[in-house]
Design a protein that fits this description.
By secondary structure, the chain is an alpha+beta fold. It has ten helices and 18 strands. Strand 7 and strand 8 form a beta hairpin.
């Protein structure tokens, strides 16, 4: 997980923060300090102002660290822009090892020109050919399925159990593929939802061990509105009983700054409020990023590894 910040002219990005499972010191050491617009995964996201999926990091000519990806076991990646109106304020990149990406999928759905439905644009499915074929042939009306619900709500939507969610249209195919939970993240510009990024994961080898959505109440306090925790029931209980003021904890910092934040260490010294529960759950790091509409952060998405 990485965060890249553009310069004032939006011609390049500099690396701000990141975490690599098990430390992966080679990954950080090989990072370029700055990438140009259009260069690498983050640079392409800046150029397109849209999410992007790389199915094989070692083969994509534009990826600036193919040898590091091969050495570290990273096989696929997805880049997500944080948009403020029409401008990219930050780029979040998520890199996955073969063992993680092999039991999950990520998809990009684009809004139709008339704004009534979501259409398949791109996806990574590993060995899940049947689920991929179904997805490519599917469209979602506003309010239908996970992409359609994100389009209607203009907010992130989390399905904690794909088989148990009546609104998940592809439930049978997802169960056959071993997928258990899904997170839909909107990419909003001045006209509304432009695209939706879906992260679909399995309980056995999750792409993210915990996925959360935090939203502000009328008093500005952030409360958990949806969460996927797999088998981490104790951490789930602590999280559901916790609220955050703006500027406090990971969700509060993201909300107050309206920018992505990476916690490379989930410690109290680093400002992570749920540190004891995270340590007991074996969680190492987390990233939070906002969903912006206009000048306001409508929600905060948090992913743990």
């Amino acid at each position: 997980m990485e965060v890249w910040i553009p310069d004032r002219e939006r011609t390049s990005l500099h690396f701000q923060a990141g975490f690599y499972r098990g430390g992966e010191p080679g990954s950080r050491a090989a990072l370029p300090v700055r990438v140009a617009r259009g260069q690498g995964l983050a640079g392409q996201v800046l150029l397109r102002k849209a999410p992007m999926i790389l199915e094989d990091l070692t083969l994509y000519r534009g990826f600036v660290r193919p040898e590091v990806a091969a050495r570290s076991g990273f096989s696929a990646g997805v880049g997500l822009p944080v948009l403020h109106g029409e401008e990219v304020e930050a780029v979040v990149t998520l890199l996955f090892a073969a063992s993680e990406a092999g039991a999950g999928a990520f998809e990009i759905w684009r809004c139709s020109p008339d704004g009534t439905r979501m259409e398949w644009e791109d996806g990574f499915y590993g060995e899940m050919q049947a689920f991929e074929a179904l997805s490519r042939a599917t469209t979602f009306a506003r309010g239908v399925g996970l992409p359609g619900q994100v389009l209607a709500a203009r907010m992130p939507v989390l399905f904690e159990s794909l088989s148990g969610e009546r609104g998940f249209v592809r439930a049978g195919a997802a169960a056959a593929a071993g997928l258990s939970a899904g997170l839909g993240i909107p990419v909003l510009d001045a006209d509304g939802v432009r695209r939706v990024l879906l992260l679909l994961t399995s309980a056995a080898t999750p792409m993210a061990r915990v996925m959360e959505i935090w939203q502000p109440g009328r008093d500005g306090t952030l409360r958990l509105t949806a969460g996927y925790y797999g088998r981490l029931s104790a951490f789930e209980a602590v999280s559901r009983a916790t609220t955050f003021e703006p500027g406090v904890g990971l969700p509060g910092r993201v909300f107050a700054d309206r920018m992505p934040v990476v916690f490379e260490r989930l410690t109290r010294e680093a400002g992570f409020v749920r540190c004891e529960a995270a340590a007991r759950a074996g969680l190492e790091a987390a990233i939070g990023f906002p969903v912006l509409e206009g000048d306001a952060a409508r929600a905060v998405v948090v992913l743990f590894n």
